[in-house]
From TrEMBL, chain A:
Annotated InterPro entries: ABC_transp_permease, LivM-like
Pfam families: BPD_transp_2
Keywords linked to the UniProt accession: Cell membrane, Membrane, Transmembrane, Transmembrane helix
Native species: Actinoplanes sichuanensis
Coiled coil regions, renumbered to chain: none
Annotated protein name in UniProt: Branched-chain amino acid ABC transporter permease
TrEMBL record, chain B:
Subcellular location: Cell membrane
Family as reported in the entry's similarity comment: Belongs to the binding-protein-dependent transport system permease family. LivHM subfamily.
Pfam families: BPD_transp_2
Protein name as catalogued: Branched-chain amino acid ABC transporter permease
TM stretches of this protein: 12-29, 60-82, 94-114, 142-159, 180-208, 214-232, 261-278
Cited InterPro entries: ABC_transp_permease, BCAA_transport_permease
Mode of membrane association: Multi-pass membrane protein
Keywords, alphabetical: Amino-acid transport, Cell membrane, Membrane, Transmembrane, Transmembrane helix, Transport
Principal place of residence: membrane
Amino acid sequence: MTAIEARPETGAKALPEAKRRRRVHPVIVIAAAAVLVVVLTYVLPPFRNYQLATVGAYFCVTAGLTVLTGLNGQLSLGHGALMATGAYTLALTQNKWENLPVSFAAAVLVTTLLGAIIGLAAARLRGPYLAGLTLAVAIVVPSVTSTFDETFNSDQGLSVYLNPPPEQYPMEQWQAWLCWSAALVVVLLLALLVRGRFGRDLRAVRDDETAAKLAGINIARTQVLAFVVSAACAGVSGALFAYLAQSVSPGAFPLTLSLFLVMAIVIGGLGSLFGALWGALLLVVLPTLSQSLGEQAGSQRLEGNLALIVFGVVLVVVMLAAPGGLASIPSRISRLIRRNR
Amino acid sequence: MSEFIYLTFDGLSRGLVYAAFALALVLIWRAARIVNFAQGAMAVSTVYVAYSVTNATGSYWLGFAAALLAGLALGVTVERVVMRFVDHSSPLNGVVVALGLVLIIQGVLGIVYGNEFLPFATPFSRDAFEVGGVAMLSRYDLFVFAAVGTVVVALTLLFTRTAIGLRMRAAAFAPDVSRLLGVSVGGMLTLGWALAAAVGSLAAILVVPTELGVHPTAMDVVFVSAFAAAVVGGLDSPIGAVVGGLIVGVLLSYVSGYIDVTVAPMAVLALLVVVLLGRPGGLFSSSKARVA
């Protein structure tokens, strides 16, 4: 009974609120973000610029994962492996042809193909079964690199040959520009994609498969497409990481990376691209913070492990207290204030 | 031929450990519809308890008992303190909270014990007996068979022959009706977590000495193999978990023996893909109704 009584009231409330907050077009948001990034790269010192670049690189993959997990409801624990695919492809093509745009294109292409293959299998699976399959994908990276060690050079990995940036720009600034151009293009494309019919299909499949099927949505195709799109984003991100580190090795893509990515999008707020930005930011900030804390305490054991604990605690607390993630906290607060007035 | 026999027995011994671990996953899945991704980390922390106790007292068996008790306690704690408060509207929530626990546990273990592999001895020799020049089983393998066999039989008896087992099944199957009939559903859930965690500890304490040693992430790959075993069997089926565990164990043993150890994770992935493409709910799943 209560649910039925409550519905007209919330409906009436929701409508004006939606009208008040008319969505700004993504192109405007992205343009503003681009200006902000350029300003930041001139203000920040080199190391901060490098961190800014890392945030951009993470933003690509968290945004793609947000589309897959948040909007389509498919959980992937294997995106670290997809990033590794992008990174290794970039390294191999770059060392062969030394043409960065071509290498990037190859990285995205190969990762997209792999994503399509995994996606075809994933579309048949639900919940824990999907998690299990993608988890197995995540741990396969070191195994592949040491089995085909002539190509991938086992645990040592490959170094990436790169041309230095134009002389008038410092390396870190150039890196930040490249990473953020890629991130902003990726996010813009994703934002345009999920605004339209495809986004509606994604959410319909997530919320109620049966209803979506009855409405004429091709479920399997929607799920595979979501996987392909997010795999392509992971490929871009992996390529950026190979570019930033100028090397690739299986150690850079452990199981914990895949788990961190899921956490980042959950903490940031599932289903919102803005939440994916929060997640990317946390992935860079939290480890740095805990490392400096560990250094102050003068304990080596603390340095690496404190980050894990902080991440874990934040995750559990956010999940129990605010399942909508950090991105939902402002609207929660404003709702609380309005209710108390 | 002799290599084949040796690999088969070795695989069965490993497979039983995966089976026990998979069984623990299935226990929690059946009771709470959560896949406990933290199980590997929880089990490792109890192996560290065994490590400390064994080092302090010099007795493997005191450490062994301490690990199982710590498993029970940890299961109760995790369920009462964290998992009980997870919002179950999306299956993702439970998974993510469990992943958070993994990080917390691994971080704490790393701070307390450090991130290096610590040696952990076995109570019996791991040298295989030879029958007519063919290496077959080691004493330790026999110990593993006995330990896991005892647990499987005990759990089966518990669930099919005792009132507690009946209540646990009822609470998992129809919580609301069970509550009306006077079953403490929350209590059964806690008991399920405690049992599962203890079984997980047993599996970990059996497998860790055969690998590189104790390490905060020592169970990561074992967890993936055991999870694959549970998924192959069908998460709802205890028999499936045991069969799946044996399949995964023997497969990994053949692949490591005949091809290369590094190929093992790829073999697990291939097995998962083949099984799940054929039967998306696992080998022992019951057929599902058509939705549209």
